């Protein structure tokens, strides 16, 4: 069976755009990496990792300072890691996912072990992959789970679930009723709890998330601004540009020019 290839590396602050013939898991113990998969962008941080299936084009820019765990998974390895686990489902689609504190601690510990005993990289990789698989299964975010109703005790406003659902529907109309259903709340109760916890309305939160995704695409892709606008749910480039300028105090075209100048 082909070995899992796990390593720690520092991602340089340069723009990289490619795809590869193996799956990939990316975690970090600090800092942030701007990353987009097939045009859907987000940030990889200690609290947010990503899964990249083979042949999916992705681009990223590191910060040049923090160590990142990168796990390459050959296609022939996935279904053979452990009978009955069906870990191949992890890579049925590209996605970003929340990394809770316990997984952050595990990743940091495994990173240290990897640095001390690089010969154990395959064993450490298998443990890390299983931990991610179990975490996603527990939070009902495994592929085909359909984002069922939240089951968290106490505070049912599950932002990880909301973020994941919003990220899948950035190009669509997103209604508060849909977000409330994810958390098993009435619209009125959801709206009130959301404002109480985040200090903004759900609509404003979705708009901000659209624009932050858009900024990644503006700075790290060659897509036209009109295409970027449509990918994050704006009907036309004009309304997109106005919202972008209000949020970031700069137009998308000027922001793109500045990002390119910074990368030269």
Automatic annotation (TrEMBL):
Q: Name one GO molecular function term.
A: DNA-binding transcription factor activity
SMART domains for this protein: HTH_ARAC
One Pfam family, please name it. AraC_binding
Q: Which UniProt keywords apply?
A: DNA-binding, Transcription, Transcription regulation
Lineage, top-rank taxon, reads Bacteria
Name of this protein: Transcriptional regulator, AraC family
Specify the taxonomic lineage.
Bacteria, Pseudomonadati, Pseudomonadota, Gammaproteobacteria, Oceanospirillales
Residue intervals of the HTH araC/xylS-type domain:
160-258
In terms of InterPro entries, this protein maps to: AraC-bd (IPR003313), AraC_XylS_family_regulators (IPR050204), Homeodomain-like_sf (IPR009057), HTH-like (IPR037923), HTH_AraC (IPR018060)
């Amino acid at each position: 069976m082909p070995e899992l290839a796990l390593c720690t590396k520092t991602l340089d602050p340069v723009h990289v755009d490619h795809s590869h013939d193996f799956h990939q898991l990316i975690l970090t113990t600090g800092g942030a990496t701007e990353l987009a998969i097939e045009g859907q962008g987000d940030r990889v941080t200690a609290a947010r990792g990503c899964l990249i299936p083979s042949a999916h084009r992705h681009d990223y820019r590191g910060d040049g300072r923090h160590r990142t765990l990168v796990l390459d998974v050959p296609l022939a390895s996935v279904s053979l890691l452990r009978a009955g686990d069906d870990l191949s489902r992890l890579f049925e689609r590209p996605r970003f996912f929340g990394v809770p504190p316990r997984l952050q601690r595990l990743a940091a510990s495994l990173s240290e072990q990897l640095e001390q005993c690089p010969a154990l990289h395959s064993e450490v990789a298998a443990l890390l992959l299983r931990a991610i698989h179990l975490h996603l299964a527990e939070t009902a975010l495994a592929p085909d789970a359909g984002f069922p109703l939240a089951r968290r005790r106490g505070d049912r406003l599950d932002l990880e679930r909301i973020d994941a659902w919003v990220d899948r529907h950035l190009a669509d109309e997103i209604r508060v009723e849909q977000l409330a259903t994810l958390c098993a709340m009435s619209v009125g109760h959801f709206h009130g709890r959301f404002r109480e916890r985040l200090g903004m309305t759900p609509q404003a939160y979705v708009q901000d998330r659209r624009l932050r995704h858009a900024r990644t695409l503006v700075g790290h892709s060659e897509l036209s601004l009109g295409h970027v606008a449509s990918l994050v749910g704006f009907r036309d480039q004009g309304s997109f540009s106005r919202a972008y300028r209000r949020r970031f105090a700069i137009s998308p075209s000027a922001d793109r020019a500045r990002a390119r100048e910074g990368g030269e």
